[in-house]
Specification:
alpha/beta, FAD/NAD(P)-binding domain, Polyamine Oxidase, Chain A, domain 2, 3 domains, 7-stranded mixed β-sheet, 5-stranded parallel β-sheet, 23% strand
């Protein structure tokens, strides 16, 4: 029989590290099991040697001021900076003011309600009139749900979107920040705090089977060719939803006995969103010398923040302002990402340059001349994520609550997919790890 005060944490992302820190601080014996050779999960920072810049291939923005994340940023003394709120939106090749975009989006979202039966976002849009102004608002809202939530509007549920909007308003999520030293430094600090409290971390340990009965868990892992076994009285599962949904014998995590039917149904029916993200590092900030008068833009491109150009294959781009770096980040979410994710990195770079050619009116040859480096990470094919982040389908709030519910006070679940309202965010993952830790302590 396992030590009653022992816990295994499966996954060393934000949720797993937060749970480990709090449980170790309470005096429990905690072991974190992580398949990768690093902590951080879907927070993944690499360094560009050309300019000594942190390049974010996973989470990049701190959305609002969620208490759990703000406390961690304060304790780590990590500098962060405001992300510019300067957004340029192109409609039919002409720039519109950002307040027009947000006004249309807010007005349409205000029509959504949790008091009515849930429906897909596409069904909600179909229920609205098709006059010219409403059609423009529908297009804006579709781009937002696809881009920000990485969602397919034919699956995303209205109730889940309302919950996300309410949670975002509560933490001031429309205002974002960026970690100046790279987001990984925040997760590394959380890892240090967990280890200082006595937690241990096993890297390069790929979980294959989780055997469990009440108050007893055995986890079987592969480390290269070597099999490892870990035992404890409880386990916190923080694996990304895409990993839990994996069915192939070579990659699936097997529970013995199987999880209860309602738990497995919740796992299988909350979708993982797709994101294609490409970071381009240039020799110089070439856009600052351009004139976009042809588009109706009357602003200084040295202050370029975000550009949204729906006709481009990669429709959303941003700079690193206020850091004046020769970097542009391209983003496509939801169904817009699917075609890009089937391409090689070289093909994605070509598509990215064609998108920038449309936006800036600059030749692809000139863009290639300025380009120094490109960075991508295919989270959809990454065996330890199988997707970018989760979003809720119709009646997804009930599924999400079932996903988060412990099984026989032995198997606990955390991760961004379990965080009501804050799904898809780092602060949601942190909050869920702390919630799982409280549930375990209450069960002892």
């Amino acid at each position: 029989m396992a030590n009653t005060n022992s816990v295994l944490i499966i996954g060393a992302g934000a949720a797993g590290l937060a749970a480990a820190r709090d449980l170790a601080a309470a005096g429990l014996s905690v072991t974190i099991i992580e398949a990768r050779d690093r902590v951080g999960g879907r927070v993944h920072t690499v360094r560009d040697e050309s300019f000594n810049l942190p390049i974010e291939l996973g989470a990049e923005f701190v959305h609002g001021k969620h208490p759990a994340l703000m406390k961690l940023l304060d304790s780590s003394r990590t500098p962060f900076s405001d992300v510019t709120e300067r957004h340029w939106y192109f409609e039919d090749g002409v720039v519109s003011r950002s307040n027009d975009f947000w006004n249309k989006l807010t007005a349409l979202f205000d029509l959504m309600s949790k008091e009515k039966p849930d429906q897909t976002f596409a069904q909600f849009l179909d229920s609205l009139p098709d006059d010219p102004e409403t059609l423009r608002a529908k297009a804006v809202a579709t781009r937002y749900v696809q881009g920000f939530h990485a969602a397919d509007i034919r699956r995303a549920g209205v109730h889940g979107l309302v919950a996300a909007n309410e949670a975002e308003d509560h933490v001031g999520g429309h205002h974002s920040f960026r970690v100046a030293t790279g987001y990984e430094t925040v997760l590394q600090r959380l890892n240090e705090e967990a280890k200082q409290q006595g937690a241990s971390v096993q890297l390069n340990a790929v979980v294959r089977e989780i055997h469990w009965n009440r108050n007893n868990v055995e986890v079987i892992c592969l480390s290269g060719e070597r099999q490892q076994r870990f035992t404890a009285s409880r386990a916190v599962i923080t694996l990304p939803l895409g990993v839990l949904q994996e069915k192939s014998k070579t990659h699936a995590v097997r529970f013995v006995p199987e999880l209860p039917e309602e738990k497995q149904e919740a796992i299988d029916n909350i979708p993982m969103g797709d994101v294609a993200r490409i970071v381009l590092v240039f020799r110089e900030r070439f856009w600052e010398g351009l004139d976009l008068a042809r588009t109706g833009a009357q602003q200084d491109l040295s202050q370029l923040g975000f550009i949204h150009y729906p006709e481009a294959a990669i429709p959303t781009w941003w700079s690193l302002l206020p850091l004046r770096a020769p970097v542009l980040v391209g983003w496509a979410g939801g169904t817009r990402a699917e075609k890009l994710l089937r391409m090689s990195e070289a093909e994605c770079v070509s598509e990215a340059l064609r998108s920038l050619k449309k936006i800036f009116g600059v030749s692809e040859m000139s863009l290639r001349k300025w380009l120094l480096q490109s960075y991508m990470h295919h989270w959809d094919t990454d065996p330890f994520s199988r997707g970018a982040y989760a979003y809720l389908p119709v009646d997804g709030l009930n599924k999400q609550q079932e996903l988060a519910r412990p099984v026989q006070n032995t198997i606990f679940f955390a991760g961004e997919a379990t965080s009501v309202g804050h799904i898809g965010t780092v602060h949601g993952a942190l909050e869920s790890g702390q919630r799982a830790a409280r549930e375990i302590l209450a069960s002892l």
